[in-house]
Amino acid sequence: MKVNIYYGGRGLMDDPTLYVINKMQGVLEELNVTVERFNLYELKNRITTLPQTIKNADGIILASTVEWYGIGGYMYQFLDSCWLYGDKEKISKTYMCPIIMSTTYGEREGKLSLASAWEMLGGLPCSGICGYIADVSILEDNEDYNRIIEKKAENMYRTINQKMASFPASNQAVKQKVSITKDIDLTPQESEQLSQYAADDSYVKTQKKDIQELTSLFRDLMGSNEQEESKEEYINEFKDHFVPQAGFKAVYKIQVEEKKKPLIIEVDGAENNCYYGNVENPDVEIQMGRETMDDILYARMTFQRAFMGGAMKMKGDFKVFRMLDQIFVL
Protein backbone atom coordinates (compact mmCIF):
# COMPACT_ATOMS: atom_id res chain seq x y z
CA MET A 1 0.00 0.00 0.00
CA LYS A 2 1.19 3.51 -0.80
CA VAL A 3 -0.03 6.84 0.56
CA ASN A 4 1.01 10.25 -0.77
CA ILE A 5 0.95 13.31 1.47
CA TYR A 6 0.49 16.71 -0.18
CA TYR A 7 1.32 19.50 2.25
CA GLY A 8 0.07 22.97 1.29
CA GLY A 9 1.41 25.04 4.18
CA ARG A 10 4.50 27.23 4.32
CA GLY A 11 6.74 24.77 6.16
CA LEU A 12 7.09 26.83 9.34
CA MET A 13 8.68 25.11 12.32
CA ASP A 14 5.69 25.78 14.58
CA ASP A 15 3.09 24.68 12.02
CA PRO A 16 0.72 22.27 13.85
CA THR A 17 -0.18 20.59 10.55
CA LEU A 18 3.42 19.39 10.18
CA TYR A 19 3.24 17.73 13.58
CA VAL A 20 0.01 15.93 12.65
CA ILE A 21 1.23 14.61 9.30
CA ASN A 22 4.56 13.55 10.83
CA LYS A 23 2.66 11.60 13.45
CA MET A 24 0.36 10.01 10.86
CA GLN A 25 3.29 9.16 8.63
CA GLY A 26 4.98 7.36 11.51
CA VAL A 27 1.86 5.29 12.24
CA LEU A 28 1.36 4.38 8.58
CA GLU A 29 4.99 3.35 8.18
CA GLU A 30 4.63 1.09 11.24
CA LEU A 31 1.79 -0.57 9.31
CA ASN A 32 4.19 -1.20 6.39
CA VAL A 33 2.68 1.54 4.26
CA THR A 34 4.97 3.33 1.81
CA VAL A 35 4.57 7.06 2.41
CA GLU A 36 5.80 9.78 0.05
CA ARG A 37 5.47 13.44 0.92
CA PHE A 38 5.20 16.38 -1.47
CA ASN A 39 5.74 19.85 0.03
CA LEU A 40 3.93 22.14 -2.39
CA TYR A 41 5.85 25.23 -1.29
CA GLU A 42 9.07 23.53 -2.45
CA LEU A 43 7.48 22.30 -5.69
CA LYS A 44 5.51 25.43 -6.59
CA ASN A 45 6.97 25.49 -10.10
CA ARG A 46 5.89 21.88 -10.69
CA ILE A 47 2.45 21.80 -9.09
CA THR A 48 0.77 21.34 -12.48
CA THR A 49 2.59 18.02 -12.90
CA LEU A 50 1.89 16.62 -9.42
CA PRO A 51 -1.54 15.09 -10.26
CA GLN A 52 0.41 12.49 -12.24
CA THR A 53 1.90 11.23 -8.94
CA ILE A 54 -1.55 10.17 -7.71
CA LYS A 55 -1.52 7.30 -10.22
CA ASN A 56 0.87 5.30 -8.02
CA ALA A 57 -0.99 5.87 -4.74
CA ASP A 58 -3.79 3.93 -3.05
CA GLY A 59 -4.70 6.91 -0.91
CA ILE A 60 -3.61 10.47 -0.31
CA ILE A 61 -3.55 12.98 2.51
CA LEU A 62 -4.25 16.62 1.70
CA ALA A 63 -2.91 18.75 4.54
CA SER A 64 -2.82 22.50 4.97
CA THR A 65 -2.90 25.21 7.61
CA VAL A 66 -5.40 28.04 7.96
CA GLU A 67 -3.24 31.02 8.92
CA TRP A 68 -5.59 33.77 7.80
CA TYR A 69 -8.44 32.72 5.53
CA GLY A 70 -8.85 29.54 3.54
CA ILE A 71 -6.58 26.59 2.90
CA GLY A 72 -3.86 28.50 1.06
CA GLY A 73 -2.98 29.17 -2.55
CA TYR A 74 -0.69 26.18 -3.06
CA MET A 75 -3.44 23.71 -2.16
CA TYR A 76 -5.98 25.47 -4.38
CA GLN A 77 -3.47 25.37 -7.23
CA PHE A 78 -2.94 21.65 -6.70
CA LEU A 79 -6.69 20.98 -6.74
CA ASP A 80 -7.06 23.06 -9.90
CA SER A 81 -4.33 20.97 -11.51
CA CYS A 82 -6.14 17.78 -10.49
CA TRP A 83 -9.27 19.07 -12.21
CA LEU A 84 -7.42 20.07 -15.36
CA TYR A 85 -4.73 17.42 -15.71
CA GLY A 86 -5.54 14.62 -13.27
CA ASP A 87 -6.52 11.09 -14.24
CA LYS A 88 -10.21 11.14 -13.27
CA GLU A 89 -10.53 7.36 -13.48
CA LYS A 90 -7.66 6.91 -11.03
CA ILE A 91 -8.94 9.67 -8.76
CA SER A 92 -12.33 7.93 -8.59
CA LYS A 93 -10.60 4.95 -6.92
CA THR A 94 -8.36 6.97 -4.60
CA TYR A 95 -9.17 7.69 -0.96
CA MET A 96 -8.37 11.13 0.46
CA CYS A 97 -7.95 12.11 4.11
CA PRO A 98 -8.15 15.90 4.75
CA ILE A 99 -6.06 17.44 7.52
CA ILE A 100 -6.62 21.10 8.37
CA MET A 101 -5.11 22.69 11.46
CA SER A 102 -5.78 26.33 12.20
CA THR A 103 -3.95 29.04 14.09
CA THR A 104 -6.96 31.29 13.52
CA TYR A 105 -10.61 30.77 12.58
CA GLY A 106 -11.77 28.45 9.80
CA GLU A 107 -10.45 24.91 10.26
CA ARG A 108 -13.87 23.26 9.81
CA GLU A 109 -14.57 25.23 6.65
CA GLY A 110 -11.13 24.31 5.32
CA LYS A 111 -11.69 20.61 5.94
CA LEU A 112 -15.09 20.81 4.27
CA SER A 113 -13.54 22.59 1.27
CA LEU A 114 -11.00 19.81 0.76
CA ALA A 115 -13.58 17.05 1.16
CA SER A 116 -16.03 18.75 -1.21
CA ALA A 117 -13.36 19.42 -3.83
CA TRP A 118 -12.19 15.80 -3.77
CA GLU A 119 -15.75 14.50 -4.09
CA MET A 120 -16.37 16.85 -7.02
CA LEU A 121 -13.28 15.36 -8.65
CA GLY A 122 -14.93 11.97 -8.16
CA GLY A 123 -12.60 10.75 -5.40
CA LEU A 124 -13.39 8.75 -2.28
CA PRO A 125 -13.47 10.55 1.08
CA CYS A 126 -11.96 9.45 4.39
CA SER A 127 -12.60 10.81 7.84
CA GLY A 128 -10.14 13.65 8.40
CA ILE A 129 -8.76 15.84 11.15
CA CYS A 130 -9.32 19.50 11.88
CA GLY A 131 -8.62 21.59 14.93
CA TYR A 132 -7.57 24.94 16.33
CA ILE A 133 -4.04 24.80 17.71
CA ALA A 134 -2.52 28.13 18.73
CA ASP A 135 0.78 26.54 19.82
CA VAL A 136 2.22 23.28 18.53
CA SER A 137 3.42 22.43 22.05
CA ILE A 138 -0.23 21.81 22.94
CA LEU A 139 -0.18 18.82 20.59
CA GLU A 140 3.18 17.57 21.79
CA ASP A 141 2.16 17.56 25.46
CA ASN A 142 -1.35 16.15 25.12
CA GLU A 143 -1.56 12.35 24.94
CA ASP A 144 -5.28 12.41 24.11
CA TYR A 145 -4.64 14.48 20.99
CA ASN A 146 -1.88 12.11 19.93
CA ARG A 147 -4.20 9.13 20.34
CA ILE A 148 -6.76 10.84 18.12
CA ILE A 149 -4.14 11.31 15.40
CA GLU A 150 -3.02 7.69 15.68
CA LYS A 151 -6.62 6.43 15.49
CA LYS A 152 -7.27 8.54 12.38
CA ALA A 153 -4.19 7.07 10.70
CA GLU A 154 -5.32 3.54 11.59
CA ASN A 155 -8.84 4.25 10.32
CA MET A 156 -7.42 5.52 7.04
CA TYR A 157 -5.36 2.35 6.71
CA ARG A 158 -8.42 0.16 7.32
CA THR A 159 -10.55 2.17 4.91
CA ILE A 160 -8.03 1.79 2.09
CA ASN A 161 -7.16 -1.82 2.88
CA GLN A 162 -10.80 -2.93 3.02
CA LYS A 163 -11.85 -0.62 0.16
CA MET A 164 -14.80 0.60 2.17
CA ALA A 165 -17.70 2.00 0.19
CA SER A 166 -19.34 5.34 0.88
CA PHE A 167 -22.70 6.83 0.06
CA PRO A 168 -22.78 9.04 -3.04
CA ALA A 169 -22.63 12.78 -2.40
CA SER A 170 -24.76 15.38 -4.16
CA ASN A 171 -21.75 17.47 -5.12
CA GLN A 172 -20.55 14.62 -7.34
CA ALA A 173 -23.46 15.52 -9.61
CA VAL A 174 -21.36 18.44 -10.83
CA LYS A 175 -19.78 15.98 -13.25
CA GLN A 176 -23.14 15.75 -15.00
CA LYS A 177 -23.65 19.52 -15.08
CA VAL A 178 -20.20 20.75 -16.03
CA SER A 179 -18.22 19.62 -19.03
CA ILE A 180 -15.24 17.84 -17.56
CA THR A 181 -11.92 18.61 -19.14
CA LYS A 182 -10.62 15.65 -21.06
CA ASP A 183 -7.65 13.90 -19.54
CA ILE A 184 -4.39 14.90 -21.16
CA ASP A 185 -1.94 12.05 -21.52
CA LEU A 186 1.40 13.82 -21.25
CA THR A 187 4.87 12.40 -21.42
CA PRO A 188 7.23 13.36 -18.56
CA GLN A 189 9.00 15.78 -20.91
CA GLU A 190 5.72 17.44 -21.91
CA SER A 191 4.62 17.67 -18.28
CA GLU A 192 7.89 19.35 -17.33
CA GLN A 193 7.59 21.77 -20.25
CA LEU A 194 4.00 22.62 -19.28
CA SER A 195 5.13 23.29 -15.72
CA GLN A 196 7.91 25.58 -16.93
CA TYR A 197 5.52 27.62 -19.07
CA ALA A 198 2.95 27.92 -16.28
CA ALA A 199 5.59 29.11 -13.79
CA ASP A 200 7.63 31.31 -16.15
CA ASP A 201 6.69 34.91 -15.36
CA SER A 202 8.57 36.27 -18.38
CA TYR A 203 6.62 33.95 -20.71
CA VAL A 204 3.30 35.05 -19.18
CA LYS A 205 4.29 38.72 -19.43
CA THR A 206 5.24 38.25 -23.09
CA GLN A 207 1.85 36.70 -23.80
CA LYS A 208 0.06 39.60 -22.09
CA LYS A 209 2.12 42.11 -24.05
CA ASP A 210 1.25 40.38 -27.33
CA ILE A 211 -2.44 40.45 -26.44
CA GLN A 212 -2.26 44.16 -25.64
CA GLU A 213 -0.55 44.86 -28.96
CA LEU A 214 -3.21 42.92 -30.86
CA THR A 215 -5.94 44.78 -28.98
CA SER A 216 -4.36 48.10 -29.89
CA LEU A 217 -4.03 47.02 -33.52
CA PHE A 218 -7.70 46.07 -33.83
CA ARG A 219 -8.74 49.27 -32.09
CA ASP A 220 -6.81 51.25 -34.68
CA LEU A 221 -8.37 49.27 -37.52
CA MET A 222 -11.86 49.93 -36.19
CA GLY A 223 -11.19 53.63 -36.15
CA SER A 224 -11.70 54.06 -32.44
CA ASN A 225 -8.63 56.26 -32.23
CA GLU A 226 -10.29 58.86 -34.41
CA GLN A 227 -13.08 59.24 -31.92
CA GLU A 228 -10.74 59.21 -28.92
CA GLU A 229 -8.51 61.88 -30.35
CA SER A 230 -11.36 64.12 -31.47
CA LYS A 231 -10.13 67.65 -31.00
CA GLU A 232 -13.49 68.83 -29.72
CA GLU A 233 -14.18 66.10 -27.16
CA TYR A 234 -14.79 67.63 -23.71
CA ILE A 235 -13.74 71.10 -24.89
CA ASN A 236 -17.23 72.36 -25.73
CA GLU A 237 -18.59 71.11 -22.41
CA PHE A 238 -15.99 73.04 -20.42
CA LYS A 239 -16.61 76.17 -22.49
CA ASP A 240 -20.41 75.99 -22.23
CA HIS A 241 -20.44 75.50 -18.45
CA PHE A 242 -17.75 78.04 -17.60
CA VAL A 243 -18.64 80.50 -14.81
CA PRO A 244 -16.05 83.31 -14.61
CA GLN A 245 -14.57 84.21 -11.24
CA ALA A 246 -13.18 87.72 -10.98
CA GLY A 247 -9.44 87.81 -10.35
CA PHE A 248 -9.00 84.04 -10.57
CA LYS A 249 -6.20 82.72 -12.75
CA ALA A 250 -5.05 79.11 -13.08
CA VAL A 251 -3.82 76.46 -15.50
CA TYR A 252 -5.16 72.90 -15.31
CA LYS A 253 -3.68 69.85 -17.00
CA ILE A 254 -6.11 66.91 -17.19
CA GLN A 255 -4.89 63.56 -18.49
CA VAL A 256 -7.76 61.26 -19.43
CA GLU A 257 -7.00 57.57 -19.94
CA GLU A 258 -6.77 56.50 -23.61
CA LYS A 259 -6.03 60.10 -24.61
CA LYS A 260 -2.59 60.64 -26.09
CA LYS A 261 -2.50 64.31 -25.14
CA PRO A 262 -3.75 65.97 -21.96
CA LEU A 263 -6.55 68.51 -21.90
CA ILE A 264 -5.26 71.97 -20.97
CA ILE A 265 -7.63 74.49 -19.37
CA GLU A 266 -6.29 78.03 -18.97
CA VAL A 267 -8.51 80.31 -16.90
CA ASP A 268 -7.84 84.03 -16.54
CA GLY A 269 -10.79 85.93 -15.11
CA ALA A 270 -13.52 85.82 -17.75
CA GLU A 271 -11.34 84.04 -20.30
CA ASN A 272 -11.34 80.27 -20.68
CA ASN A 273 -9.01 78.62 -23.17
CA CYS A 274 -9.32 74.83 -23.63
CA TYR A 275 -7.19 72.71 -25.94
CA TYR A 276 -5.31 69.41 -26.22
CA GLY A 277 -1.58 69.79 -25.92
CA ASN A 278 0.99 70.28 -23.22
CA VAL A 279 2.05 72.96 -20.80
CA GLU A 280 4.88 73.35 -18.35
CA ASN A 281 4.33 73.91 -14.64
CA PRO A 282 0.51 73.83 -14.47
CA ASP A 283 -1.11 74.80 -11.17
CA VAL A 284 -2.94 71.46 -11.01
CA GLU A 285 -2.31 68.12 -12.74
CA ILE A 286 -5.13 65.57 -12.81
CA GLN A 287 -5.28 61.95 -13.98
CA MET A 288 -8.59 60.14 -14.36
CA GLY A 289 -10.39 57.53 -16.41
CA ARG A 290 -12.83 58.26 -19.20
CA GLU A 291 -15.73 57.00 -17.11
CA THR A 292 -14.91 59.42 -14.29
CA MET A 293 -14.70 62.34 -16.71
CA ASP A 294 -18.09 61.41 -18.17
CA ASP A 295 -19.61 61.22 -14.68
CA ILE A 296 -18.35 64.74 -13.94
CA LEU A 297 -19.56 66.21 -17.23
CA TYR A 298 -23.01 64.66 -16.78
CA ALA A 299 -23.25 66.02 -13.21
CA ARG A 300 -23.20 62.59 -11.62
CA MET A 301 -20.07 63.53 -9.68
CA THR A 302 -18.00 66.59 -8.79
CA PHE A 303 -14.25 66.97 -9.12
CA GLN A 304 -13.80 67.01 -5.36
CA ARG A 305 -15.94 63.92 -4.79
CA ALA A 306 -14.04 62.05 -7.49
CA PHE A 307 -10.75 62.91 -5.82
CA MET A 308 -11.93 62.03 -2.31
CA GLY A 309 -13.34 58.75 -3.61
CA GLY A 310 -10.07 57.76 -5.25
CA ALA A 311 -11.42 57.96 -8.81
CA MET A 312 -8.75 60.46 -9.83
CA LYS A 313 -5.23 61.49 -8.92
CA MET A 314 -4.29 65.11 -8.32
CA LYS A 315 -1.00 66.95 -7.93
CA GLY A 316 -0.65 70.64 -7.22
CA ASP A 317 -2.45 73.40 -5.30
CA PHE A 318 -5.51 71.91 -3.60
CA LYS A 319 -7.24 75.29 -3.29
CA VAL A 320 -6.93 75.81 -7.04
CA PHE A 321 -8.21 72.28 -7.58
CA ARG A 322 -11.33 72.96 -5.48
CA MET A 323 -12.15 75.95 -7.69
CA LEU A 324 -12.96 73.58 -10.58
CA ASP A 325 -16.38 72.89 -9.09
CA GLN A 326 -17.05 76.65 -8.91
CA ILE A 327 -15.80 77.80 -12.30
CA PHE A 328 -17.42 74.87 -14.11
CA VAL A 329 -21.02 74.35 -13.01
CA LEU A 330 -22.06 71.10 -14.66
TrEMBL record:
<protein>
    <submittedName>
        <fullName>SCP-2 sterol transfer family protein</fullName>
    </submittedName>
</protein>
<dbReference type="InterPro" id="IPR036527">
    <property type="entry name" value="SCP2_sterol-bd_dom_sf"/>
</dbReference>
<dbReference type="InterPro" id="IPR003033">
    <property type="entry name" value="SCP2_sterol-bd_dom"/>
</dbReference>
<dbReference type="InterPro" id="IPR029039">
    <property type="entry name" value="Flavoprotein-like_sf"/>
</dbReference>
<dbReference type="Pfam" id="PF02036">
    <property type="entry name" value="SCP2"/>
</dbReference>
<feature type="domain" description="SCP2">
    <location>
        <begin position="247"/>
        <end position="328"/>
    </location>
</feature>
